[in-house]
Amino acid sequence: MMMTKLATKPPQLTAIVIAKNEAKMISNCLQTLQWCDELLVIDNGSSDQTAKLAEDFGAKVIGFESQSFARLRDEGLKRAQHDWVFYLDADERVTPTLAKEIQVQLETTQAGALRIRRTNICYGKEFRHGGWQKDYVTRVFQKKLLAGWTGKVHESPVFDGGVATLQTPLIHLTHRNTTGGLKKTMHWTKIEAELLVKAKVSSVGFKTILRKGLLEFWRRAIWQRGYQDGTQGLIEALVQAINKFLIYIQVWELQQRPPLADQYQQLEADITKLWEQQ
Questions:
Q1: Is residue 275 part of a domain?
Q2: Is the pLDDT of residue 134 over 60?
Q3: In which domain, by residue range, is 255 found?
Q4: Position 8 in a domain
Q5: Is the pLDDT of residue 131 over 90?
Q6: pLDDT for residue 166 is more than 50
Q7: Given a cut of 60, is residue 1 above it in pLDDT?
Q8: How far is residue 252 from each of residues 208, 215, 238, 247, 249, measured CA to CA in Å?
């Protein structure tokens, strides 16, 4: 008597997108994820139409606010319904070739995670130097092997099992304009400064601030050959240097004793006393 072989169900995948005020980007991002079995958007306190646009594309939207990307990614892991999860940001795009490669890997790989190289488009140009050329991100995981994420700004996954590296890149449409970049800079440099102070970084003075910024520009523009990406590469190196300046200026500010807020409060009190003496 012949035995009928039962067909195995192909692995299913939940795409998890972290987004905040990404109304201009979320629809096109989700458009490239329609091949996934579930679309999950973790909305980090958007005040625009991000949530509505995501729902229009069939995504399940979870409102969850946090300054920690690790906590946001953990929330997505907790909510995902399928055996595999794929993390994206709203400014990242999947090509048909990458989608097919991921699907093949889910059915054949023995690894617990998939690593993808990102093609970074900054100021409208693909960057091949300045530290952007070796940008690999591990974003696809067997859910049961992913314990969670650590790190408040530069988060990292904690998982078991090996990692397979894909051949097809993920497209990253970043640094689309100066204004948007500055808004993100003011948010994340503050957090990085707070983390440095919490880690008991040495006392920061003007020489340290200047050295950190200039070294960052030299590292990206010269040592990592960012100048070969033309004007865009040099501008990006300068932006990264400015970010470093701002981080250490804010470290200096947080190290002041008494704190600057207390100093201004004392000045206000002194002025009030002058008026009371009239």
A1: no
A2: yes
A3: 178-263
A4: no
A5: no
A6: yes
A7: no
A8: 10, 18, 21, 9, 5
